[in-house]
Specification:
With 451 residues, this protein is mainly α. It is built from 18 helices and 2 strands. Strand 1, helix 14 and strand 2 form a beta-alpha-beta unit. The mean pLDDT is 84.
Amino acid sequence: MSEKKSPVIERLINWLVNSRLVRSLDSFAEWIRKFFKVANLVRFSFWISVLGSASLFASNQSADILRVIAEDTEHPFKSWLVFMLSGLTLSLMSWYWARALIYRFAPDALHAPGGKPEGIAARWLPRVCGMIPFIGIGIALRQAVQGLEPQELTRVWLMHLFWLNLLEGVVVAVGLFFRRKVAKILRAHLSLWPEQVKREGTNKLTDLPRITWRILVFTVVLAVILFVVFTTSAGEIEFASWLGTASLVLITVAAWIAFGSFFVVYFGKLVRLPILTPLLILALLFSYFDLNDNHKIRSFDQPIQTTPQDFDDAFTKWLATRNDKDDYKERPYPVFIITAEGGGITAGYFAAMVLTAIQDRAPAFAQHVFAISGVSGGSIGSAVYAGLVKRCTNNLSSTQLPGPGQSITVTPGPLQESADAVLGDDYLSPLLSAFLYPDLVQRFLPFPIDR
């Protein structure tokens, strides 16, 4: 019976294989295969650009990083210029390396007809890589203005940055789109203009046009130089702070693209072995077996024995030592318990500025503060306030406070200016540069390097 059914089943299979739907699916699969064969060459530029750009709008703290640029009144032109140049550097680095790898490993795809998948990938994917940073920065800037009032100066400057980024992106997009036509005209009139990429015989990097492979080598060397700079104290603290957090992220991602495209994609294609996956596996193994931990915390050998005070006893002793308590015999004695929420350096700065502003305007304020509870950044701001109050002020009696009818200044006082000097500096960029450079490389080493 099965022998009688076999011709029917065979005809059914043949019909399915030769049907229009199956042929269409087969053609589509072949189209995808050819497209991704070229797309695989630019994967590093694409994904690193996406991740780097997304880091600017991935959290609420990312919005604060961009607001710092808009609020920089000391060096506004420098901050804006460095930020815009950093975005442009990432864009060109992403596009150039994607283009160069296609030149090296798939030059024929650049000459494929417009409708062919390899031609579409070769022409458009490098341009997409070049546009990703501007798209990410635009999204981040739009997100940073959320929650700000229309008349706030920070929002106004952020929108200026948004339109400048959009203008820069449009200029770059037009340049990339018409680049081949412009290059063809310039090549016909200028002898110094680089020759066209060969369709055959590009067996090594130096087979590319001289200016192309020299620029590629220069970008790799520059990435190595940045790594060396950020492993030094001066680089981590001074240069990273000069760049600013947002610009540091963009410059670092650009360096990763140059270094990673050369060693992960280019070198991996030459040796025909995967490079990134084994490195990630090794990094996980080194961390799992704790072979490269260089973040050990120094400990104090002698144990510190402290016990929490009883609240009632502590408050009674505190109240008994108040120098101005006699001024409040006929009225309740003012007591303040302060809480400062977390939120990074922004919360710390806000807590310190508010408390010192009150202290500058009411010199006896600290005399009435019984306790301060702070979390994360709020605890830093509270500690700065406590330190400044202890060192810089003398608590006075209530008779020396501004009385009814007396004006209270709205300009920053000495304590508020001191708090701004302490917390107004950039403490995030140095930490971030250490994380993105020496600490990141440490993850791939099987032994710790003392910091």
